[in-house]
Request: fold
Amino acid sequence: MSKHTPGPWKWFGNASSNHVYLATTHSGRRYVMDFVRWDMRGAQPRFQPEKRGMVDAKDLLQFEVGDQSIIGVGDAKKDGSVYRYDVRGINSADARLIESAWVIPVLLEALQECEEYFDNRADADCDQDGYIPNEEMQLLTLVRDALRKAGA
Reply:
């Protein structure tokens, strides 16, 4: 069994205290990832949105309260509806991918079970000439390719 932190995971924090972290959403919040101070500046993740350079997470934060279309601390401070800076997410595809990474072991296990199922089906469905139905062979090939790429 994998030793990863069980999901689901979600970004949390508070922009007022310059603290953003990734944690579980169950059984109390167990931290998965956070950032610490580096020299005299606060640390934070940075992401590269499409067709832009690196952007500080503070400029991509989404907030729990107020106008849900507000993105970033600067715009939140200008908008009266955001009266608390509790984070509900980070507006970045990479941040969302990191947040959903907890599900990878679950997917790997499902793929391994699919591989076993299709192996057994292939044995049962072969005709006398050893022919396996094309649809099943294509699915088995996709499953094996995904497992190979995942190193499983």
Observations:
- Strands lie at 9-14, 19-24, 31-34, 46-47, 55-56, 61-63, 87-90.
- The chain has two domains: 9-99, 104-150.
